Amino acid sequence: MPTLAFSPALPATPPAAAPSLFGRIGTALRVLRRVNPPLAWAGWLNLGLAGAALLLLPLDHRVVTGLPVWMKPLKFSLSIVTYAWTLGWLLADLPAAAQRAVRRISWAVAAAMAVEQVVIFGQAARGLTSHYNASTPLNAALFSLMGLFIGVNTVAAAWAVYLAWRHRPHGSASYAWGLRLGLLEFLVGSALGGFMIHAGQHTVGAPDGGPGLPGLGWSTVAGDLRLAHFLGMHALQALPLLGWALGRRLPVRPAVALTWGGAALWAAAVAALLLGALAGRPLLALP
C-alpha cells in the first residue's frame, strides 16, 4: 500500500486513537459473523438465552439438584456462547481447502447446541433436570435425544481435529500447535462426559444435589466428574491462546516447545481431576 506524504504547509493530522477493548471485540464478532454465520448466530442466540435465564433466576424459586432451576440453563448458555464463538474463530484460521468441511461442521455444531438447549430450557420450565433423567418415558426420550445430538457434536469436533492436523492453520507455528492440541484436548474433555452417562449422575460417592460450590454445584463432599470435563473442554480456549502469546514473544522452537509443555500440563491436570473424582475425593472439601 503506498504511503501518503503530508504537505508541509498543512497541519499534521493527529494519529487515530487505538480502538478500545469493546471496539476490538465488536470488530472480531463482525468478522466472525462474516466468516462463520452458523456459529456466530449460535453464540448470539445463546447470549440471549443466558439473559432470559438470568432474568428468571430471581423470579422462580424452585430448586433442582440443589441449585435454582434456571442456573443450569444459564451455565449452559454461557458455555455454548464461549464454545461456538471460539470454535468459529479457530476454524476460520484453517486454509481455504478446509472451509467446505468447516461449514458442515459448523452447521452440525449449531444444530446440536440448539437441540440441547431446547431440552434443557424445556425441562427447566417443567421444574425438572434434563440430564440423566429417566423418571418417565418422556424424560428418558428427551435425555436420549440430547445424547444423540451430543454424539453429533462429538463427531463434528473429531472432524475439526482431523482438519486441523491435516491442514496447517494460519498464524505462528506455536499458535497452530496450540489450536491443534486445544481441539484434541477439548475432544477428550467432551468424551469424559461418558463417565457421567455411565454413572447416571455427576457425583461419585454421593447422590447429585448434595453440598456443592455456590453457583456451580460441584460437590464438596464427594468426587465430581464435572471438574475434569470442564477443564478438558476449556483447553479449546487456553491452548490456542497460549500458543498465540508465546509466538509473539519467543523464537519458533522455544515457543512450540512451551506450547507442547503447556498442553501436557493441562492434560495432566485433567487426568488428576478425573482420577480424584473417580476415587470419590472432592476438589474442595468445605464444611
Give a verbal description of the structure.
This protein has 287 residues and is mainly alpha-helical. It has 2 domains: 35-170; 172-287, no CATH class. The chain has 10 helices and 4 strands, in the order ααββαααααββααα. It has helices at residues 21-35, 37-56, 71-92, 99-125, 137-166, 173-191, 193-199, 226-233, 235-249, 252-278; strands at 63-64, 67-68, 203-204, 223-224. The strands form 2 sheets. It has a two-stranded antiparallel sheet with strand order 1-2. The protein starts with 20 loop residues before the first helix and ends in a 9-residue tail after the last helix.
Key words describing this protein structure:
4 strands, membrane, 10 helices, two-stranded antiparallel ribbon, mainly alpha, transmembrane helix, transmembrane, disordered N terminus, 287 residues
Tally of alpha and pi helices: 10
What is the helix fraction of residues, given as a range?
55-70%
Which percent range describes the beta-strand content? under 5%
Please identify the oligomeric state.
single chain
Tell me the number of structural domains.
2
Give the biggest sheet: 2 strands, antiparallel
Shape: globular
Would you tell me the overall average pLDDT?
88
Spatial order of strands in the largest sheet = 1-2
SSE sequence, one letter per element: HHEEHHHHHEEHHH
**How many distinct beta strands?**
4
Structural class: mainly alpha
As residue ranges, the low-confidence spans are 1-11
How far is the first residue's CA from the last residue's CA? 65 Å
Q: What's the alpha carbon Rg, rounded to whole Å? A: 22 Å
Transmembrane segments: 39-57, 77-98, 105-125, 145-165, 177-197, 227-246, 258-279
Keywords: Membrane, Transmembrane, Transmembrane helix
